[in-house]
Amino acid sequence: MGTSYLLRSHKQLHLPPCPRHPWHPGHPSGTQVPVGPTSTSGMSKYAQLLAVIEEMGRDIRPSYSGSRSSAERLKRIIVHARILVRECLLETERSARN
C-alpha cells in the first residue's frame, strides 16, 4: 500500500459527509461539536486520534458480520483517522523544529 493511497483526502475518495459525525471534515457544518460523552474540540490531535481508533473498534465486528451500515461508518472513520494521523505527524514535525 503506497503512501499516496494513505494520504488521499475524503474529497478524493468521494465519500459523502457523515451526518452522525459532525466533526468529520466533510460535514456541511464545518465545525466541531461534542460527540458522545467527550468533545473533540478541546482535545489534542493525538487524543482525537485515540478516540477515533476506539470508535473504530466498535464497528469492526458488526462489519465482519455483514452490517452494511457498520462497514460504511468504518470507512468514514478510517478516512477521518488518516486525516488525523497526517495532522499528528505535522504537529510532531513542528514541535521537533522548535
Automatic annotation (TrEMBL):
Q: Which InterPro entries match?
A: DOC_1/2
Looking at the UniProt entry, the stretches that span the membrane are none
* Nucleus is among the record's keywords: yes
Q: Where would you say this protein principally sits, based on its record?
A: nucleus
Pfam families per record: CDK2AP
**Keywords of this entry:** Nucleus, Phosphoprotein
Query: Residue ranges of region Disordered?
Result: 16-40
Annotated compartments: Nucleus
Q: Please provide one cellular component term from the Gene Ontology annotations of this protein.
A: nucleus
Q: Which family does it belong to?
A: Belongs to the CDK2AP family.
This chain belongs to which protein, by name? Cyclin-dependent kinase 2-associated protein
The organism is: Lutzomyia longipalpis
